[in-house]
Structure formats: C-alpha cells, structure tokens
Amino acid sequence: MKYASLSFLSFLTMAFVMTSGCTKEPTDEELLKSATLHQRSGEFDDAVIDFQLLIQKHPKSDKVPEALFAMGAIYLNSKKEYVKAESVYTKLVMDFPEHPTAEGAAYQRARIFVEYLHKPDSAIAAYELFLLRYPNSIPASSARSELTDLKKIPTPGK
After folding, report:
1. What's the pTM value of the predicted model, to 2 decimals?
2. How far is Cα 83 from Cα 106, in angstroms, rounded to an integer?
3. For the packed helices 100-115 and 82-95, what is the interaxial angle rounded to 10 degrees?
4. What digits encode the pLDDT tens for the residues 4-22?
5. All domains of the chain, ordered by start, with CATH?
C-alpha cells in the first residue's frame, strides 16, 4: 500500500509538471482589469502586484503608462509610500512623456518632493521639468506659483 501511495503521488507530480507549462499567461488587458478591480476594492497590495505583472510581462503594452500612473496613486494616496510613488511617477514621465498620464505624474512628483519628502531642490527641478514639458497644462499656473515660492525660500549654506 505504501508503494501505491508513492506511485500515485509521483503520477500527480508528473501530471502537474506536464500541465503547468500549458497555463495561459494573462493578457495586459486582463491584468489591468484585475488590478483595477483590486484597487476599487481597497486591495492595494494585490492591485500593485497585478500592475507590476502587467509591466513586467507586457513592457511594450499601451497599458503600461496607465498601470504606472495607478501604481503611483496607490503608493501616494493609499499606502503613503512617497519614495515609491515618486519613483513610479518618474518612470512614467521619463519613459512615456507624451502619454496623457505623464503630465499628472510630472506634477505629482514635484508635489511629493515638497509636501512629503521635504526636498525643495528636487521639487524645483521637478517643477522646472514639468513646466518645460507641459507649459500649457491646467496645473502649469499653480506650478509656476509654487516654483516661485520655492525659489524664495533660503537654503542652508547659501
């Protein structure tokens, strides 16, 4: 009986190994839909995992900028992980500067540096990049005003 159990277990293992390579990879659309559902349900860790899978498995997909923007928003607003949010937004701005979400990501980067990371020099650089790339955008006037205010603040050693 002992050998029969071992033989059956071996059979199951072999069957699993043989069929595990046959599973279909989720499409970029399926991953985006799953991530969005997780995000709406407040399952932010699961949403981030799905967004990351989309980016890793489908790096050339037109869904990548949307995934990056959504991940940045999760890190910023829900998880309060500001360094990660800034990093994700930076990737979006640098890799997809023409995508409609890049404008918002560029502006958010500067605000993160000011409000959460307390790095005025980085904020100045981020606002300047934002204004260089998106001078006629809706938040451009706010960015100009915030940039002017930042430049008035004396920095130590100057």
Report:
1. 0.82
2. 14
3. 150
4. 444 444 444 444 444 455 5
5. 23-152 (1.25.40.10)
